[in-house]
Amino acid sequence: MLSGIIGHGEPAPVSGHQASSLAAPAKKPGCRAIAVAGGKGGVGKSTVAVNLGMALSMSGHEVMLLDADMGLANVDVLLGLTPSRHIGHMLDGQCSLEDLLLQAPHGLQVIPAGSGARRLARLDNGEHAAVIRAFDDLARPPQFLLVDTAAGLADSVAMFAAAADDLVLVVCDEPASLTDAYALIKVLSRDFGVRRFRMVANMVRNEGEARQLHLKLSRVSDRFLDVVIDFMGWVPHDERLRQAIRQQRAVMDLWPSSRSSLAFKKLAGAVDKWTEPERTGLDRIAFFGDRVPSTAGY
Ligand SMILES: Nc1ncnc2c1ncn2[C@@H]1O[C@H](COP(=O)(O)OP(=O)(O)OP(=O)(O)O)[C@@H](O)[C@H]1O
Ligand SMILES: [Mg+2]
Predict the structure, then answer these.
(1) Is the CB of residue 204 below 6 angstroms from any atom belonging to ligand 1?
(2) Which of 36, 105, 195, 279 is the most buried (most CB within 10 A)?
(3) pLDDT at 72
């Protein structure tokens, strides 16, 4: 199924990192940035970012959610928030990152991206880096930063994804979702040295279907790329979730016992069990600037 996008005998080159070096000093304990990506549009990236973030928050963690879908922001809409300022205002020096923080239910804090702002849709890599670095100056960094990324393979997606400690790939049971996820894995591994991915199957019927999807993606990635794709879990197709979206509420908030909410709780439980991220070998720009450059792998 994926043959259309894979060149024959394609190697898994590991080139230098595109982002500039950031030799940061001490590591701040407990700041873990988790990017939610997927390549394809509409697979549920924002839904997973919002509800996983809220599930982590509900289980007692301090959580921030950065909407990194610049120019087409969704997170504020999904949560019924009405931001008066966005990342663009911070980049223009009109406010700080703290000034942008919005309070969502259950203690989740949201940093909105701004919708329809052409300036945001055209940020250059230096500006993406400035957004990432702004987190270094937070007086009270969260335990988890969830980063909701845009669809596609734009520089912004790659930079935000590569700047995180962990990469959650949202995939659904459509050929284009698998091919787009593969394309994203390829870019991130080849150009940014990202080696580990965690896959969430969304809108599936059962665990068997979810594991099938994981098998398909890891089979082809194992063959052509030097990466590891862990199976993180799955979220069922749930009408309750759609109803919650229509009411501009997170399903975790509105129906915490729905099938999808239980799945998000389970995903949050999985995050809790993750071991400390390996931070060797990263000389790219990273959230919380606590990477120690070295030559080892990810
Ligand atoms: N588990 C689910 N059950 C039912 N519907 C779902 C589920 N997950 C997502 N959806 C539906 O898919 C739509 C798209 O989800 P979402 O906005 O999270 O995708 P996305 O990947 O962030 O899209 P984009 O690439 O446009 O940012 C939702 O509005 C919702 O209707
Ligand atoms: Mg989205």
Answers:
(1) no
(2) 36
(3) 86
Does ligand 1 lie within 6 Å of residue 39's CB atom? no
Pairing of strands 109-111, 102-103: antiparallel
Summarised one tens digit per residue, pLDDT across range 19-38 is: 333 444 344 456 899 999 99
Closest CA to 207 of 173, 180, 175: 173
Strands 32-37 and 102-103: unpaired
User: Residue 7: which H helix or E strand, with range?
Assistant: none
**Structure pTM?**
0.89
Strand partners, 109: 64, 103
Please state the atom number of ligand 1 nearest to the C-alpha of residue 69: 27
pLDDT digits (tens, 9 = 90+) for 253-280: 999 999 999 999 999 999 999 988 876 5
Atom of ligand 1 nearest to the CA of 203: 1
